Amino acid sequence: MQKVYLDNAATTAIRQEVIDEMVQIMQQDYGNPSSTHSVGRSAKAVIETGRKTIAKCLNCKSQEILFTCSATEATNWILRSAVKDYGVKRIITSKVEHHATLYTVLALQEEFGIQVDYVGVLPNGTLDYAQLDLLLVAEVITLVSLMHVNNETGVVNDINRIGAMCHQNKALFHCDTVQSVGKTEIDLQEIPIDFIVASAHKFHGPKGVGFAFVRKSLVLQPMLFGGEQEKGWRAGTEAVHQIAGMAKALELSYENINEERDYIADLKSYCLQQLQAAFPEARENASTTFYNILNVLLPFSEDKTTMILFNLDMKGIAVSRGSACQSGSLKPSHVLAEMLSEDDLKKPSLRISFCHYNTKADIDYLVEVLKEI
Ligand code: PLP
Fold first, then answer.
1. Residues 192 and 94 reside in one and the same domain
2. Other CB atoms within 10 A of residue 198 CB
3. For a surface tag, which of 7, 120, 135, 203 has the fewest beta carbons within 10 Å of its beta carbon?
């Protein structure tokens, strides 16, 4: 059966060069990076080289990059430390964030009684910047947590603008850049942002490794206690091969960024064109969207909504309805629920997300199968 993978916002295939790099590290640099002998020092050097590579891509200092096992961990750590150690009394976020942020904020609200304010989104998915401006005026120690690219709709938030607004109002700014790191340039010298988080498996690296950027002037308290790894902020023996794989994946993403971006953007517009040619009422669920994510509402009857992913899967096509963590759920997406009318929410929306391994033939096959459903 033909296999078509169009769920690259959920995770991506690992580049062969990344696999080769990781295998080599596992074979040769198996030392414990905390050991003082040469085998350990060699593993430590791998980690520090990876840190420098990542910092160079993002134009920040290598001490500002801290390795974690996922972006979820990095977000939990940053938000918790901000409340516990920085005295943050209020978090401003939005209801269209990933659950890694939303559920962490709710847990902190319950545990520490912090105030939580949600910035609204307009029906096209754009953030209500005017409302954010008003919310920021209050005299309370605040952290703003807003993502860069929405993982379900692809809506791109203007992080320069949000950063400037936070800076002006002395609020900390945490940004979930999981969907944008490795896919667009992020210059951390230019953007007034305090924390970002990223995950290697979203940019053709391995799963189980991510990082946090923490601006040099800020000091986090550890979430895990134990050894002195990661400045004593994140105890636990480092996953040397994963870190090396993540650095290699980011480096390769940057090396190919223009070529791959153009190629993928072309695939996305071809896909929308073909879908609209087949189903004239099909429409994208948002505007100002990123080049690799297409969230499209299909003019199908409601009874097709529940089975659509299953039917596509039976034909070898992997797409999703929302984030991977909730795609088994029949509840409407919490993101689309903020944007669409009740009627539109009942119809099937698909999140189709692309990478440079996809081809126009993949899209032709998807459209052909959808026509049969
Ligand atoms: N934030 C966004 C926007 C995501 O898309 C994801 C992954 O689905 C995460 C956070 C969580 O990342 P991780 O898989 O590293 O925990």
1. yes
2. 29
3. 120
